[in-house]
Amino acid sequence: MNFMEENIIFKPLYSLKHTPINVHFSKNSSDFVVRERPLYEFSGKGEHLVLHLQKKDLSTSEALRILSEHSGIKMRDFGYSGLKDKQGLTFQYISMPKKYEESLKNFKHDKMKILDSFYHDNKLRIGHLKGNSFFIRLKKVSKVDALKIDQAFKNIQEQGYANYFGYQRFGKFQDNFLQGLEILKGKKIKNKKMQEFLISAFQSELFNRYLSKRIELSHFVNDFNEKELQQIYALGKDEIKSLKQQKQFFKLLKGDVLGHYPFGKCFICEDLSSELERFYRRDISAMGLLLGSKAFEAGDGLVKKLENEVFSFAYEFKDKMQGSRRFMWSYLQDCKSYYDEEKAHFTLEFFLQKGSYATVVLEEILHTDIFEQTHNI
């Protein structure tokens, strides 16, 4: 049975084991702040102007539309490194042709400010950022729950986290991936960018399901004995023993596609013992499949078996998508936390590599569905 035949919404598995922590979280401009960190310094010369924007409850596309209406710049002439959520206070960089600089000298808007500007040689493109720093304030946090949050946050800092795609990828009704599958089956839509986005949501759903299988395997290796694992995965004694000897939570498999973390080329895990040492040092990490043409192929064995369980029904659409790999296991940086017992507020600060979701980290800490909470479902 593939997920099209399932009549339930998929919920990824958590890596941490604890009961849900009930607190209040709202993605508003006081309690959710995102700061974009560029991949490189701007050159100070060139035909492009880079603006550092502060936006309150504005998506990237809404901000660009406002700037376009004010300056006369066509939407296609703007550049940006990543899309930011509408909800919250966000800081990001956008680029535009330098010749329009004068048109923005008197720019004013109640939800957006231009904080600074730089000259640069080229237009900003998707992916031209190192990552994002986040500030999150949780409310109605009891002293007991504060201790639980603090411990969960420390655990993630020590072991890393499952790098799922967040709910933002899947739309208001969490069904973008189904629309993507319909497009792959032949349904036509006129908007090419929307078509690409919906297909990417389908790829993201499959990625999440495979990653969840790997989290399940990691739990099973920790929780079950060697005989039980042999029955579940039909592996030899030596393979089971190798898995049981891995001290980290997320288990690597021979045949995994690995990548130099956080940026680097893909390669196959052939010598598990030597690669484990690099994994412990966070020099490399395992990469999951974004199904499509030219995606780096995994090796044989359990990796291929688990991939087939998730992806096999969609292989017929493989050549209709651009494939790639994405880190399954990632790490927090620049972590800080503070509990204000008087106000019952708990604040979290951390940095994530590009493409990762703060809400995924928050869900791992709280074991609460953030989409349901923020959308009052």
Summarize this structure as a short list of keywords or feature phrases.
globular, alpha+beta
What does this entry look like structurally?
32% of the residues are buried. Helix 3 (176-184) crosses helix 4 (192-223) and helix 4 packs across helix 8. The model has no long low-confidence stretch (mean pLDDT 93). Helices cover 32% and strands 23% of the residues. Strands 1, 2, 3, 4, 5, 6, 13 and 14 form an eight-stranded mixed beta sheet that branches. The protein has a four-stranded antiparallel beta sheet with strand order 9-8-10-11. A two-stranded antiparallel sheet has the order 7-12. The chain has helices at residues 60-71, 143-159, 176-184, 192-223, 226-233, 237-245, 272-280, 302-311, 358-366, 370-374; strands at 32-38, 48-56, 79-80, 89-97, 112-120, 129-138, 161-162, 257-260, 266-268, 284-290, 324-327, 329-330, 333-340, 345-353. It is α+β, with helices and mostly antiparallel strands and 377 residues long. It has ten helices and 14 strands.
